[in-house]
Amino acid sequence: MCTSLTLTTKNQHHFLGRTMDFGFQLYGKPVVIPRNHSWQLQLGTKLTTRWGFVGTGRNLGEYFVADGINEKGLAVAELYFLGEAHYVETPDPNKLSVAPHELISWLLGEVASIAELREKLTDVQLVHAENPLLQTVVPLHFIVTDKTGECVVLETDKGYLEIKDNPVGVMANSPELEWHLKNLTNYLGIRPTNFSNKTMGTLEIKPFGQGSGTFGLPGGFTSPERFVRTVYNREFTETGETLTEGVNALLQILNNVTIPKGVNLKDDGSTDYTQYRAVMETQSLTYYFQPYETPEVFSLQLTEDLLTAAKPVEFPVNTEFKVTSLTK
């Protein structure tokens, strides 16, 4: 599952945030990959990162991250794209062949902006290759933003890697972006203000109370419901002005799509829940991480020391639930 969105404060702090919802325990940790780090693609090509980046990931021989931000302010998150993702079976030798789970590492290590992404994307192909942790070919699509606040989505529903402008700055899971955007037409009546009283015959009908304008806003955890709910909340939530106000606003929006353990079970009985939430800010180059086990938020800023480290640096997180006592 998973939900992601961009957000911009009044002072032009640009954010990308996401929930990581999964039934398989991922054990991801915040990790910094330095610039000039050498790594090898699954199909053999050796690469060196042009830019350093931070994200949540895991070492599986090479580090793979599910989201992150690089030193140029490019921020990316991958989300499940079940039934829609189609990858290359016979790679073109003239293109760089990348497994789906490797694309974010290539993006963050090589691309500085969405403008540059548009130029380089035609040189890359996503190939049918298994993820070594999940031992399956993972169906993915990707949401991307940069320091300008522009937002695009990368999808392969047409059989090739395509960049799509995202006018609402939100992404969930299947179907493809165009379907989600068209589905918003069904919710034209949703609004933050109450409906007025209405007379039918001689009966004056009044709202039950505050919030009548949101009647019909979907509340379930399916991808279409989460997409609509996030678009609405993103549109009307007060973003604040400062960096911390923006982080708080984005996390408040994610509260509406965060999945507790046990309320959403897969067919095999496993629980699909929000394992962590992440927020990335493209000016300060700060990555915010919040695991399921605690409401505490951990921040990690890209510094020159980290960017020039000799090897990737992992940051273990204390997930102990803490309570501040007001009693002396």
TrEMBL record:
GO MF term (any one): hydrolase activity
Keywords annotated in UniProt: Hydrolase
Statement: the UniProt record of this protein carries the keyword Transmembrane helix: no
Domain spans labelled Choloylglycine hydrolase/NAAA C-terminal: 2-312
Coiled coil: none
Keyword hit for Hydrolase: yes
Source organism superkingdom: Bacteria
InterPro entries, sorted: CBAH/NAAA_C, Ntn_hydrolases_N, Peptidase_C59
Pfam families for the chain: CBAH
Family as reported in the entry's similarity comment: Belongs to the peptidase C59 family.
The name this protein goes by in its record: Penicillin acylase
Annotated source species: Vagococcus humatus
